[in-house]
Amino acid sequence: MKDYKVLKFLDRFKGLFKKFDIDYKAMRKILQVKLLLDSRRVATVLQNNNSKNDDKKDKNNFISSLWIYLLLGLVMIPLVLIGESYIFQMSIVFGIFMFFMITSLISDFSSVLLDLRDKEILLSRPINSRTLNMAKVLHIFFYVSMISMALMGPSLIASLMKKGFLFFILLLAEIILVDLFLIVFTGLIYMLILRFFDGEKLKDIINYVQIGLTIIISLGYQLIGRLFNFIDIDKIQFSGKWWSYIIPPIWFAAPFELILNNNRQINIIAYSLMALIIPITSIIVYIKLMPEFERNLQKLRNVGMAKKSRSKFSDIMGKIACRTKEERNFYRFSTNMIKNEREFKLKVYPNIGFGFIFPFIMLFSLSVGSKFSEVRDSKLYYNIYFILFAVTAMVQFLDRSGNYKGAWIYQTLPIDYPEYIYRGAVKAVFINLFTPLYILVSIIFLIIFRIRIIPHIIAAYLSMMLATSIIFKINNKDLPFSKAFSVTEKGGLLPAFLSLIIEGALFAAHYFVAKASYGVYIYIIMALIANAITWKYFFRVQGNH
Amino acid sequence: MEPVIRIKNLRKFFGDKMVLKDINLEVHKGEIIGYIGPNGAGKSTTVKIMLGLIGEYEGQVNILGQDISSGDINYKSRIGYVPEIAEIYENLTAREYLTFIGELYGMDYEVADKKAEKLMELFGIQNVYDARISSYSKGMKQKTLIISALINDPDILFLDEPLSGIDANSVMVFKEVLAELARNGKTIFYSSHIMEVVEKLSSRIVLINNGEIAADGNIEELREKSLEGSLEEIFNNLTGFNDHQEIAKEIVATIKGVE
Question: Record keywords: Membrane included (chain A) (predicted)?
Answer without folding.
Answer: yes
